[in-house]
Design brief:
heterodimer; A: alpha+beta; Alpha-Beta Plaits; two-stranded antiparallel ribbon; 13 strands; globular; B: Alpha-Beta Plaits; 2 domains; 5-stranded antiparallel sheet; about 45% helix
Chain lengths: ~250, ~200
């Protein structure tokens, strides 16, 4: 995001909306106070623009080229990832598991959502997480746009040119056998000590016929904490969507 | 009861490459069913949330790639919406975010077996960079992190100064959340608690 200094009147109305807190006041050579975006720290989420609070239309999102373009596609929920056609972080995760069977019985989805909540992350931190998990032989979800930025899925090395890009959040997404949940969790906790951001860890699993959730049993047996709230896919999806034959 | 027990997000999407073609009609019907109950926010990732673009724009803007959401504060409303959604047999995938046991209870009332469950195992890394827990409770209601901690602080100051009521502040906080999953009534409850006990730097 960029602020047109010639238009900006320095009212600061846009500043509270900035998640990264990178809009500051400055003074031009002529002494006029205006706002300025620290573009290196900005993630191009466009929230300041969408807030429609600028009285003089001074906010403008410049057209970005690769690899800067990564910022907007990962950080602006209205943008669609061209690889997956999914908006947001670009992955359907468990939300369509009743259709895709992405997480089969006996397996769990385990993900580290970097930058969340509200801190943002450089992709070099994502690479650290990838490289910590790759030696464990985990499968990185191919239908996730972050996986597409890997140079080598076997080592977790990402493309060099993307490492300094910063996003609001992105998800390192794995699918693992149930009996490896604690091992992967330990690896995530270890690598967390080396990064300059945060990540939230999510655990996905298909419920059994008796409605119990095997991944939660693993967590309880290992005396590990998990939230009492979460997402539940209620299993009403099927291939013949109503009205699709119109 | 804590505020979390008054926060249920129900949302629908189709699976790309499986059943997404022409799914916009079913996704629109999903929103119409949600609209029959006492929702406190709704939205579509393709268009925006209710507090920014309004209901009409959301309803008219649904696309095959949309992810459409509604937010309820009571299990009763959730139960009713789920009952109708099951009967409508839309075919799109439906997910509910909320306290797992409460959601499961609503599903069992409707003879629905939960399919897949996701929980959080917490936050790791530089947690020293995070804002106060009380602010996070408000900001994290938007899963994409579109509600900034500074915005919440500003609203608390506005309430304290009498510029806005807690209700107005909470509704305003909902505007950046493009999916429409931010629960303004829960936010109002949290703001009302915070504004009395926080000593704020107003500079």
């Amino acid at each position: 995001m960029r602020i047109d200094a010639s238009k900006c009147i320095g009212c600061g109305q846009c500043r509270p909306f900035c998640i990264m807190q990178v809009i500051d006041f400055t003074r031009s050579e002529k002494g006029k106070v205006h706002c300025v975006v620290n573009e290196d720290e900005c993630v191009d989420c466009e929230i300041c623009y969408r807030a429609k609070v600028c009285p003089v239309d001074a906010l403008k999102q410049p057209e970005t080229q690769w690899p800067r373009s990564i910022r907007g596609t990962f950080s602006n929920p209205l943008a669609i990832h061209k690889e997956t056609k999914v908006p947001g972080r670009g992955t359907e995760e468990m939300k369509t598991n009743d259709i895709t069977n992405r997480y089969e019985r006996g397996f769990a989805g385990m993900s580290a959502e970097l930058g969340r909540p509200g801190i943002g992350a450089r992709l070099r931190d994502a690479e650290k997480v990838f490289m910590a998990l790759a030696p464990l032989g985990v499968e990185f979800e191919p239908q996730n746009p972050l996986t597409n930025l890997l140079e080598d899925p076997k080592t977790g090395k990402m493309k060099e040119e993307v490492l300094n890009e910063k996003v609001l959040s992105c998800i390192v997404e794995t699918i693992i056998p149930l009996d490896r949940i604690l091992e992967v969790l330990d690896a995530m906790e270890k690598v967390a000590k080396t990064i300059d951001s945060v990540f939230s860890i999510d655990l996905v699993c298909r419920a059994d016929e008796d409605l119990s959730v095997p991944s939660l049993k693993v967590m309880e047996a290992g005396h590990r904490w998990y939230t009492r709230n979460g997402k539940t896919n209620i299993g009403l999806g099927h291939l013949n969507v109503k009205g699709a034959d119109r | 009861m804590d505020s979390l027990s008054r926060d249920y997000v129900i949302f629908a999407m189709s699976a790309k490459g499986f059943n997404s073609e022409n799914s916009r009609y079913a996704l629109t019907e999903f929103l119409k069913i949600v609209d029959k109950y006492h929702w406190v926010n709704m939205g579509d990732m393709k268009t925006g949330g209710y507090y920014l673009v309004g209901k009409e724009a959301i309803m008219e803007g649904v696309q095959d790639t949309s992810i459409v959401h509604g937010v309820f504060t009571s299990k009763e409303d959730l139960r009713g919406a789920v009952r109708e959604l099951k009967a409508a047999d839309l075919g799109v995938s439906i997910t509910i975010s909320g306290i797992l046991d409460n959601v499961n209870e609503v599903l069992l009332d409707n003879n629905i077996k939960r399919h897949t469950v996701e929980v959080s195992l917490g936050v790791r890394g530089r947690t020293d960079r995070l804002p106060e827990e009380e602010l996070l409770e408000v900001t994290t209601m938007c899963g994409h992190g579109m509600v900034s901690q500074t915005f919440v602080r500003q609203m608390l100051i506005d309430i304290k100064k009498g510029k806005r009521t807690p209700e107005e502040a909470a509704n305003y906080l909902a505007t950046p959340c493009v999916c429409g999953v931010f629960n303004p009534r829960r936010a109002q409850e949290l703001l009302e608690e915070l504004v009395d006990v926080w000593c704020m730097d107003e500079n």
